[in-house]
# Entry
Amino acid sequence: MWNRRRGSNVWRVVMLRRAMWLTVLALPLAVAGCGGGTPAPTPRPAEGSETAVVPSPATATPTETPWNPVYGYDPGTSTAVAVVDGVVTQMLAGDIEALAALVLPIESPCITGLGAPTAFRCPAGVPAGSPVAVVFAQFCAGAVAFPASEIRATLRPLLDGSPRLWGLMEFPPGFPSSKSANAAASRYLLFVVNNVDPPTAFTLALGDDGRIHSVSYGCNEPPERVFRSWTTTATVLLSPPASPRPR
# Structure
């Protein structure tokens, strides 16, 4: 005999299980509909209808021009003294042979024996007292003599230092004898080398004929200081430039 209450319970269990299975089967579809599945492929444009992709222009980063000053006059500046202009031209051109030919050596008696200075030492087989050619250079500690044959090695650091003209002074005849190995030098040509920081000065002592009597390296002083120290006794023929400029 059919038990209505029991049959009703069995029917409920069957319907409940069916509903659970439908829920389980529908869950992947619901997840896919929420974006969890593989997205549909993007349709490829028809051939010939592609749009070119133009890259956006790169934004240039502004850069500051470094302050790289050069001291001294520009090449071609005249001192208004023809023989001096010739020396300046050769110095700026780096013509070491022409400059070496302008250096005026001094003849001095040579010395023999141990301890004789190199510049004044008698060559082998030459008796003491024989004349030898020497050239003087001024350094911070004083004047130094060296053989005239070494003048190129002495001038080379100056030529390699990006020299520029700084000024020109004229002293009374024979003054100052302590600044030159030869008192006949009357003009002092002031240069500045730009390959050191800060730029430093050096001078050439010149005679009236433009010959170089001595080279002064000074004490690694700036050209402004050297110029000021000489203006109390010298006549200024060419004043220094107003200020340094960028290269």
In short: Confidence is low (pLDDT under 50) at residues 1-8, 21-37. The first strand starts at residue 69 and ends at 70. Residues 8 and 168 are 127 Å apart (CA to CA).
